[in-house]
Model the fold of this input.
Amino acid sequence: MSGVAVRHGEPCSVLSVKFFAGQPKNLAAVGPTSPAAPQTQPATPMQLAALSSVKHRVQVNAPLPFNVRCSNKTLILARGQRIESQQQLESLFERGALVDIAELQSSREEVLKATRSQLPQLWSKSMDAVAQAIRQSPEDAGFKAALDDASAPVLSLIERDPDLAIFQVLRQGAGADTDYGAQRSLQTAITSLLVAQRLGWEPPEAERAFKVALTMNLSMLELQGQMARQATAPSPDQRHALQTHPMRSVRMLEAAGVTDALWTQAVLQHHENEDGSGYPSGSTDVTALASLVRRSDVYTSKLASRSTRDAMGADQAGRQMFMQDPGHPMTAALVKEFGVYPPGCHVRLASGELAIVVARGPTVTTPVVACLSNARGVPLQSPVRRDTSQSGSAVACVVGEAAVGRRLPLDRLMAALVA
Done:
């Protein structure tokens, strides 16, 4: 929609042409007049609702979660396209743009109805939406509603398949600095939710842990990426930003309309330790919510690569957590949830084959794996499942990404997980 200008009084046909200008590929894919698309009569009449009634689900410069239509049902914007400015969005509201109610089904319904083969695409779409939401300025109108809306499908996907959720925690590859910070927040949020569930927390408390982890670093998303890339020690300004980011993140949440005191208190305390060695205040009176999120953050940071070190193997990260925090039930629950060979980690089999763990197995030492290369190191055309309970295919060790040789596209890895 680059360069689109919407004027008052323009008919739907003009609006449609203007909005699709410069996007012929998208129009060809979804346009109702495409000759390749079969003309089928819907079983029931389309029921429409005003776009303005679901404005909390629309974000400027973010993929649309549904199609947008004129009053005569003409398609203006297709699902996945973007509205580039607030002015364009307001023009759509004023012109009475509509959405199909059938497309407004809850994210939970969409996830539960999806086939297993559709889950990778849903994960990719949902993770992108959450990252977009937390990169949005909390001062923007609708930040909290957008965050809630984007988080809902991720929570449903975790419920549907925890193994695929753990895979998201171990995945690497964020590019821009803010992308790195957003990805780290998402990984910690998923981990916090899974550990809270293993500890038997009630669903509202577990979801609050997810939200705390997701927003604890709102004020330093870009700084996280910068520090992951730099090989030198933090500068004085960076140290100050690190020390003060819990308070600044709380202020941003409050400005966004978050009134949940347990949420904001946990964000404030997510770097505090029970022994008083944490920051920003050195408090020993730390809430359970903050303690859980801190441990999840420590664990996931070990799994993330930086310019000065490779990502730590999941088995080593688990051992370190036990050594650094012996006997604590939260740490025990975390390590039990992820296990020795969590989905997403690369392993060498007794056969010499290189594989990726695609699911937790019947025992902690017999995960479900898919081979990526044979014993000679030759990449396989497509991943092949192996039974690690058989001695010839038993897991010999965890290997780092450097040993993989090449990084398979995320969609191929995700396809191996659901095969």
Remarks:
- Residues 1-9, 20-42 have pLDDT under 50 and may be disordered.
